[in-house]
Write a structure and sequence with these properties.
By secondary structure, the chain is mainly beta. The chain is 7% helix and 47% strand. The chain has helices at residues 104-113, 123-130, and strands spanning 2-4, 12-24, 29-42, 50-52, 65-66, 71-82, 88-94, 145-148, 152-153, 158-164, 174-189, 195-205, 208-209, 216-222, 231-232, 236-247, 254-262. The strands form 4 sheets. Strands 9, 11, 12, 13, 15, 16 and 17 form a 7-stranded mixed sheet that branches. Strands 2, 3, 5, 6 and 7 form a 5-stranded antiparallel sheet that branches. The protein has a 3-stranded antiparallel sheet with strand order 8-10-14, with no helix packed on it. The longest helix has 10 residues, at 104-113. The two termini are 24 Å apart. The model is unreliable at 116-121 (pLDDT under 50).
């Protein structure tokens, strides 16, 4: 990025740049990852002077994403530190970025190590951003076992699922297994006092009925190529899972789920 100053900046003490990854929900935009690019200049700036900020995406970087309930993108941010005056800041959003995201092995390692590694540069941070901490959406169904052959996939790839059911004393009236994408987004609740709130919506589901009399079910799902990849941010999140759901009349439904990690499409 080239930064040209039309006017002199006598008060300038330093110019510093960063490479930022940001996520945007319905009403909020948060910084997910910041990589320092260093100090570009120190001291006053003359009119017409040019500064250059060179940035390389870290290994395994996530590509930009436009989804139904939010987005993800990269930018170069510049801060001009002025003496005895307010600092100046500007940002240039980067487009036309092509990357396949983190390697599946890096994602698996990040999941094993935990997901609080966003301060790190490089593949570890990118992989941690892809990892999702899933909390069970429902009370589990007693006796139901759900196995996924490979929980780390890319759009267009298949997901092999095995469901083992117990001998029900009273067979469920409606039992399904589904692959689901759930998007979470930050929005402003200004009903009485303006506060930040979190919303969620299931944006993709492919339910398949299960026969309670059959103890073993083997199903193969496919991740559609037009669906978003997994992402763990603060203003925007994308969660994937395979889940067995039992719908019960006049009672809360129950569900047993296994999280999936959907990586960006291979570039």
């Amino acid at each position: 990025m080239r930064l040209q100053f039309e006017k002199e900046a006598k008060r300038c003490r330093s110019v510093t740049a960063w490479l930022d990854l940001f996520d945007t929900g319905q009403d909020y935009r948060d910084q997910a990852l910041r990589i320092p690019l260093g100090v570009l200049h120190t001291g006053p700036i003359e009119a017409g002077q040019e500064l250059v900020a060179e940035a390389r995406l870290p290994a395994g970087a996530l590509p930009p994403l436009e989804a139904e309930r939010g987005s993800l993108g990269w930018s170069i941010s510049v801060k001009i530190d002025n003496a005895f005056a307010f600092d100046d800041e500007l940002a240039l959003e980067l487009s036309d970025i092509v990357t396949s995201g983190p390697d599946p092995e890096a994602v698996a390692q990040a999941l094993d190590a935990g997901s609080d590694q966003l301060e790190f540069d490089g593949a570890t941070a990118a992989a941690a951003l892809t990892g999702i901490d899933h909390s069970p959406p429902y009370s589990p169904i007693p006796g139901v076992e759900l196995k996924v052959a490979d929980p780390i996939v890319r759009p267009g790839e298949s997901v092999s699922v095995e469901v083992r059911l117990p001998r029900f004393k009273k067979p469920p009236k409606e039992l399904t297994v589904s692959i689901e994408c759930e998007q979470h987004y930050a929005w402003e609740d200004d009903d009485e006092i303006s506060t930040r709130a979190n919303g969620s919506r299931t944006t993709y589901a492919e339910p398949q009925p299960l026969d309670p009399a059959d103890p073993v079910h083997e199903i193969v799902f496919a991740i559609p190529v037009d669906q978003p990849f997994s992402y763990q941010g603060s203003a925007f999140k994308v969660k994937w899972q395979v889940i067995v759901i039992e719908k019960r009349r006049l009672r809360f439904q129950r569900g047993t789920g296994v999280p999936l990690i959907v990586l960006p499409p291979a570039s």
